[in-house]
């Protein structure tokens, strides 16, 4: 091997070198198996056949698996740059492109080499002596936009505004003269977020936001009534007309009006004299991202101590990805996920079982994320801008030799590949918009369950799963039991159980007095309700009346009483606090409330008891014969209110039906918790009898041909409305189903585990609080998420890439609470 000429060795392997085509995804910024990058000590190795990238510790694994020997080695070394380099103000909501965020990042010098494995024979690049195929391939790789960066920039870059199709021939009517200031909505008292309709000169307020802020929808309602298409936002008009915010209702987007000056002049508006007083939509988004600051979120102003080491690795914010970061930090603080993707599975094991492209394999990317978060490899103080290193800090579990610098921080790891995989089946999570942490958590558990379907005994998501049993007591004295599985316990907040009612009453009086005097209440004076968590749990199991319940025993509608309990207690119990309610006028509102959460809770009293001696079940046969008449019908008023908020009509009907038409608030809570249900878009079933009658024998025969018993096939088709694919999923999701347990699709006759809750973890009802995901903002779709986790006997705050010892964890402000069974 010593006598082999490196160039001859390269030529002998030219068949394994490919010149990338425009459609090829090229990875050159991050290792597929770890978070190593060109800036890491060993640089990055790009496979010149598959264009996948590997760190120095993993490139040999790829050679063993694929036999591909030729790699482009990329190494970046930091340049020494003056610390007072001026910051560039961003003009575009983008990262890493002209006009985007700069943030005074250090500059790096990049070097390239051709490396041939297994002996790591190295040839410099560029070099005219290299074969032309290699030179062309390397040039194409270096010139191409990296797959990681391409996805990031595409998601961040705002869409370029188009010229409106309605602008050139816009009709203008009336003789309205718009004053240069002092505007107010023509239909209400709003003086902000005002839009001038460019056809008739009407000044109206903008859309109502989810949280009730914003306008009152008068501008969009005016368009629906008149069809007048264009409006300009008052306060954004200056001599720079291109910066004005013009919206086209029929095109449902911000647009360019080339004749805006002419259209404004019609209403007597001299745009050159106007001063800008309102932000455009894009500017507001830029401002929010630019001004985000650690000191504005929880524990702001606290002198927190940064922590480094295994289990204390931050996650880089990829752009409104804090919902994911907070959730995953808590998830990987559980033994079940640590064991599955870290302690019991090495990176090499995951890579060996991964498909040809490991970037699209959830098992691989979860293992990569677990090792990135838990190994401590990337939890180190970041280097300072001048190139000197931050004083070393020992592993958090070993103690700190010297106090860390107060502003020391870590770079964190960017979970780009994990996000791309987990978002593949959920388009919303692939965007840069803020998302609901609860919705992400449920989607994540669903994807983990699916990826472990071949070996369910390895599925760590089962540690969160539990059974819920609802008991319905008919006025006839007979009962029915329904069971379901869940991963979270969603709790209403009974404000009437507040423990500080006297203080609240006094505060409300002061508030009313100040409002009558035109004064605002300061933040220091605000008193918020304090509700014990025990009251929320008691509310869950409290009896609830069901009006218009069809009794198969009485053969008529009556009032029934429903109670709920848990059939099993999970290893990890997640409590979701329903802080979003409907206030007067059907406006969604976030409850400004504190929940007093103890460190230890006991839910033993919440265990369901099943059918008791002496209880008689409602007749199932009668239920089937009366299925058509007992089929619930959605309250149209509830459906209309939900639909007006933008929800799907079918989803609204299901929400009303599944909450027994209890009200808009209950229906909305159900809807937000079931948006990801696999059957959310399935037609509404018309009862057991109809399902039974519609079962196609051919469908039964098809399932039997797959090896399933005929009785099981009929049960599955009945439960899935006759759909073969859904029936197959039902069978796999209910492996212990039997013909004898068919009653569980309607009623259950005892408390022993059935196919609904068989095999679930179970134990005592005492739990210890170990994780909190809190939310700052008026809506789950905006604001910021932060995690607080109990680690090694102390609370730690995880705020994206910032990890520090918590001084005052917000136990009373949580959105999601995570408990572990004692």
TrEMBL record:
PROSITE patterns on file: UBA (PS50030), USP_1 (PS00972), USP_2 (PS00973), USP_3 (PS50235), ZF_UBP (PS50271)
EC number(s) on file: 3.4.19.12
Record InterPro entries: Papain-like_cys_pep_sf, Peptidase_C19_UCH, Ub_carboxyl-term_hydrolase, UBA, UBA-like_sf, Ubiquitinyl_hydrolase, UBP13_Znf-UBP_var, USP
Positions annotated to bind Zn(2+): 185, 188, 205, 218
Sequence ranges assigned to domain UBA in this UniProt record: 633-674, 694-734
Region (Disordered): 381-410
GO terms, molecular function: cysteine-type deubiquitinase activity; zinc ion binding
Family: Belongs to the peptidase C19 family.
Domain UBP-type: 158-271
Functional summary from the UniProt entry: Recognizes and hydrolyzes the peptide bond at the C-terminal Gly of ubiquitin. Involved in the processing of poly-ubiquitin precursors as well as that of ubiquitinated proteins.
Stated name of the protein: Ubiquitin carboxyl-terminal hydrolase
Keywords, alphabetical: Hydrolase, Metal-binding, Protease, Repeat, Thiol protease, Ubl conjugation pathway, Zinc, Zinc-finger
Keyword match Transcription: no
USP domain segment(s): 313-822
Active site: 322, 784
Catalytic activity: Thiol-dependent hydrolysis of ester, thioester, amide, peptide and isopeptide bonds formed by the C-terminal Gly of ubiquitin (a 76-residue protein attached to proteins as an intracellular targeting signal)
Record-linked Pfam families: UBA (PF00627), UCH (PF00443), zf-UBP (PF02148), zf-UBP_var (PF17807)
UniProt source species: Hibiscus trionum
GO BP annotations, alphabetical order: cell communication; protein deubiquitination; proteolysis; signaling
């Amino acid at each position: 091997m010593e006598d082999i000429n490196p160039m001859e060795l390269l030529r002998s392997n030219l068949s394994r070198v490919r010149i990338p085509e425009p459609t090829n995804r090229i990875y050159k910024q991050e290792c597929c198996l770890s978070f190593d990058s060109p800036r890491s000590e060993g640089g990055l190795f790009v496979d010149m056949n598959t264009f996948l990238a590997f760190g120095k510790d993993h490139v040999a694994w790829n050679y063993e698996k694929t036999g591909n020997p030729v790699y482009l080695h990329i190494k970046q070394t930091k340049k020494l740059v003056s610390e007072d380099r001026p910051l560039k103000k961003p003009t575009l909501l983008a990262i890493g492109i002209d006009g985007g965020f700069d943030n005074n990042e250090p500059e790096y010098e990049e070097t390239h080499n051709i490396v041939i494995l297994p002996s790591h024979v190295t040839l410099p690049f560029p070099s005219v002596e290299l074969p032309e195929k290699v030179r062309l391939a390397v040039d194409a790789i270096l010139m191409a936009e990296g797959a990681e960066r391409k996805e990031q920039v595409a998601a961040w870059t705002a869409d370029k505004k188009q010229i409106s199709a309605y602008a050139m021939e816009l009709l203008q009517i009336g003789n309205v003269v718009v004053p240069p200031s002092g505007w107010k909505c023509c239909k209400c008292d709003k003086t902000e977020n005002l839009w001038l309709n460019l056809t008739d000169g009407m000044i109206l307020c903008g859309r109502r936001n989810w949280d009730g802020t914003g306008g009152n929808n008068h501008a969009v309602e005016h368009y629906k009534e008149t069809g007048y298409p264009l409006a300009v936002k008052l306060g954004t008009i200056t001599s720079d007309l291109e910066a004005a915010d013009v919206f086209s209702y029929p095109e449902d987007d911000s647009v360019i009006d080339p004749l805006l000056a002419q259209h404004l002049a019609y209403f007597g508006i001299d745009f050159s004299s106007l001063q800008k007083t309102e932000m455009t939509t894009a500017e507001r988004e830029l401002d929010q991202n630019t001004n985000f600051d650690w000191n504005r979120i929880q524990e702001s102003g606290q002198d927190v101590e940064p922590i480094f080491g295994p289990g204390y690795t931050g996650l880089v914010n990829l752009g409104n990805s804090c919902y994911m970061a907070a959730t995953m930090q808590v998830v990987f603080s559980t033994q079940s996920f640590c064991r599955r993707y870290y302690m019991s599975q090495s990176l090499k094991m995951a890579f060996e079982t991964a498909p040809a492209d490991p970037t699209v394999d959830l098992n691989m990317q979860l293992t990569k994320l677990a090792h990135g978060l838990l190994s401590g490899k990337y939890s180190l103080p970041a280097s300072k801008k001048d190139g000197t290193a931050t004083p070393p800090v020992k592993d958090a579990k070993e103690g700190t030799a010297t106090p860390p610098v107060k502003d020391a921080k870590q770079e964190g790891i960017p979970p780009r590949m994990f996000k791309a995989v987990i978002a593949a089946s959920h388009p919303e999570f692939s965007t840069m918009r803020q998302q609901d942490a609860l919705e992400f958590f449920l989607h994540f558990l669903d994807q983990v369950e699916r990826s472990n379907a071949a070996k369910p005994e390895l599925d760590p998501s089962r540690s969160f799963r539990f059974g819920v049993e609802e008991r319905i007591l008919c006025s006839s004295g007979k009962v029915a039991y329904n069971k379901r599985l869940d991963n979270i316990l969603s709790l209403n907040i009974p404000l009437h159980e507040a423990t500080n009612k006297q203080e609240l009453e006094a505060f409300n009086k002061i508030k009313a007095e100040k409002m009558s005097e035109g004064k605002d209440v300061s933040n220091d004076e605000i008193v918020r309700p304090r509700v014990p968590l025990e009251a929320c749990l008691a509310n869950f199991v409290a009896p609830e009346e069901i009006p218009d319940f069809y009794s198969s025993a009485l053969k008529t509608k009556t009032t029934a009483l429903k109670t709920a309990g848990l059939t099993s207690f999970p290893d990890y119990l997640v409590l979701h606090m329903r802080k979003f309610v409907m206030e007067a006028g059907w406006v969604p509102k976030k409850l400004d409330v504190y929940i007093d959460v103890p460190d230890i809770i006991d839910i033993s009293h919440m265990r369901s008891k099943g059918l008791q001696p002496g209880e008689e079940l409602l007749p199932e046969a009668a239920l089937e014969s009366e299925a058509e008449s007992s089929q619930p019908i959605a309250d149209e008023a509830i459906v209309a209110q939900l639909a007006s908020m933008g929800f799907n009509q079918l989803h609204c009907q299901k929400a009303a039906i599944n909450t027994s038409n209890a009200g808009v608030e209950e229906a909305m809570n159900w809807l937000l918790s079931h948006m990801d249900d696999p059957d959310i878009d399935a037609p509404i079933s018309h009862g057991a009898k109809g399902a039974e009658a519609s079962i196609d024998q051919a469908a039964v025969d098809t399932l039997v041909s797959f090896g399933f018993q005929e009785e099981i096939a009929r049960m599955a088709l009945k439960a899935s409305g006759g759909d073969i694919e859904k029936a197959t999923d039902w069978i796999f999701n209910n492996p212990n189903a039997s013909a004898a347990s068919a009653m569980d699709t309607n009623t259950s006759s005892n408390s022993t585990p059935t196919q609904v809750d068989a095999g679930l973890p179970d134990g005592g009802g005492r739990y210890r609080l170990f994780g909190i995901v809190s939310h700052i903002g008026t809506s789950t779709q905006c604001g910021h998420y932060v995690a607080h986790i109990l680690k090694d006997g102390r609370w730690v705050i995880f705020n994206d890439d910032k990890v520090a010892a918590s001084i005052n964890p917000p136990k009373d402000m949580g959105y999601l609470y995570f408990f572990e069974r004692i």
